[in-house]
From TrEMBL:
It comes from Sulfuricurvum kujiense (strain ATCC BAA-921 / DSM 16994 / JCM 11577 / YK-1). Residues 200-417 form the Protein kinase domain. PANTHER family: PTHR48051, RAS SUPPRESSOR PROTEIN 1 (PTHR48051:SF1). SMART domains: LRR_BAC, LRR_TYP. Keywords: ATP-binding, Kinase, Leucine-rich repeat, Nucleotide-binding, Repeat, Serine/threonine-protein kinase, Transferase. ATP binds at K229. PROSITE patterns: LRR, PROTEIN_KINASE_ATP, PROTEIN_KINASE_DOM. InterPro entries: Kinase-like_dom_sf, Leu-rich_rpt, Leu-rich_rpt_typical-subtyp, LRR_dom_sf, LRR_domain-containing, Prot_kinase_dom, Protein_kinase_ATP_BS. It comes from the Bacteria. This is Serine/threonine protein kinase. One of its GO terms (cellular component) is cytoplasm. Pfam families: LRR_1, LRR_8, Pkinase.
Length: 417
């Protein structure tokens, strides 16, 4: 975190990154003094509503964040030829004009705004990989987006879409898709018993995510330790909390899915009681970063035996087949959403991006199959032994799952693991 005083004094000369949180109502002109070096600009959590017309003077700018401000229209960044990541989450943006973004953009965040439509020129963003549009008022997507053939992750939840355009199913690299909370998303829910919040002895917090907090608790009704997830109720990059809750309740039982025991009654927040997973389980991977964009990251020392890769692939393919048989797309099938122990048993969790669809529409499953292929590819890249029958089989399966001809990919139930 930096200060305006530091910026104005010249103390930040030569900086490559600048973060200011000072209730700014106007863009500080002194930022242009960093034009020769500045690569990452974060002016989130201020009160800005406009940017200078000559923002392209920041000729080295790569990443720009303006979340939680007061923009009503998306500013123009034309001429910022190195800019690849733009974030305007939680503004009041209603207008997204034609040709305001450079073709270098690969990561666009417009979550929680007021957009009703998108410009046709979004189809010119040929490098676009990640696009977050949840929590707007979109009624349709422009057909020109079919030209975004590098698009891998798309968040459309909590909008007003009456259909998912068929061209979406043919995007060769689309792998992570979320569209719950739209008129076109079927509403499916399985009844679940309720448990009184007062019957739970809530203990330490186990973790927090975009949609809520998870606590360890003791259930007097079940006479066992459980995990309690309390939802925040806000719109996240994946959609509404109540849609995540609904999807989680609908997963059914499977040895590689965390069992849902009950929903919570008597608390102001939405809540679920889940099977408690002991701390011998750890995350298989870490979320993507600025450089990987859509692909998971791993600690430097991470390596996987071919046996572990096979065990994970078999378990996750089985869990995914189970979900898709119920017309439920996970939407976020990633290593960082998988828990694993030393015996290679794993759980697929986090249904924040899950969406219901009609099971007959197999195209949705084949989109997720590519995400599974990415998972195998990431794990195989960290497997020292790149030979043998199992390695060859998994590499061939990865290739089939990542086939850019979407219709030729196998379904999860056809993988034969």
């Amino acid at each position: 975190m930096h200060t305006l005083a530091q910026l104005r004094s010249g103390e930040l000369k030569g900086a490559t990154r600048l973060t200011l949180r000072e209730n700014l109502t106007s863009f500080p002109e002194e930022i242009f003094d960093l034009a020769d070096t500045l690569e990452i600009l974060d002016l989130s959590n201020n009160r800005l509503s406009s940017l200078p017309n000559d923002i392209n003077r920041l000729k080295k700018l790569k990443i720009a964040f303006f979340s939680n401000n007061r923009f009503t229209s998306l500013p123009s960044f034309k001429g910022c030829e190195h800019l690849y990541m733009v974030g305007f989450k939680s503004n009041q943006i209603e207008t997204f004009d034609e040709e305001v973004l450079p073709e270098s953009i690969s990561w666009l965040i417009l979550t929680d705004n007021r957009l009703v439509n998108l410009p046709r020129s979004i189809g010119n963003l040929c490098k676009l990989q990640k696009c977050a549009l949840a929590g707007n008022q979109l009624e349709s997507l422009p057909d020109e987006m079919a030209s975004c053939r590098n698009l891998e992750l798309l968040r459309l939840s909590a909008n007003n879409l009456h259909e998912i355009p068929s061209w979406l199913w043919n995007l060769p690299k689309l792998s992570w898709l979320a569209f719950s909370g739209n008129p076109c998303s079927p509403k499916a829910q399985f009844e679940l018993q309720e448990i009184a919040y007062e019957s739970l002895e809530v203990k330490e917090k186990l973790g927090s995510g975009a949609s809520g907090d998870i606590y360890k608790a003791y259930s007097n009704a079940d006479e066992q330790s459980v995990a309690l997830k309390l939802f925040k109720g806000a719109i996240t990059s994946d959609g509404y909390a109540h849609d995540e809750m609904n999807a989680t309740m609908s997963t059914g039982e499977h040895p590689n899915l965390i069992k849902v025991l009950s929903k919570v009654a008597g608390d102001e927040r939405l809540g679920l009681v889940l099977e408690y997973i002991p701390d011998v389980y750890r995350n298989l991977g870490l979320p993507p970063d600025f450089e990987t964009c859509t692909r998971d990251t791993f600690t430097e020392e991470t390596s996987f035996s071919i046996e572990t890769v096979y065990a994970v692939a078999k378990a996750i393919a089985s869990a995914a087949a189970h979900l898709h048989a119920r017309g439920l797309m996970h939407g976020d099938l990633y290593a960082h959403n998988i828990l694993i122990n030393d015996d290679d048993h794993c759980y697929l969790g986090d249904f924040g991006a899950a969406s219901f669809y009609e099971p007959c529409e197999k195209a949705f499953e084949k989109i997720e199959v590519r995400a599974f292929g990415c998972l195998i590819e990431d794990m195989l890249s960290l497997c020292p032994a790149k030979e043998g029958a199992i390695y060859t089989m998994l590499e061939e399966l990865r290739e089939k799952c990542m086939n850019e001809a979407v219709e030729e990919r196998p379904l999860f139930s056809e993988m034969g693991l």
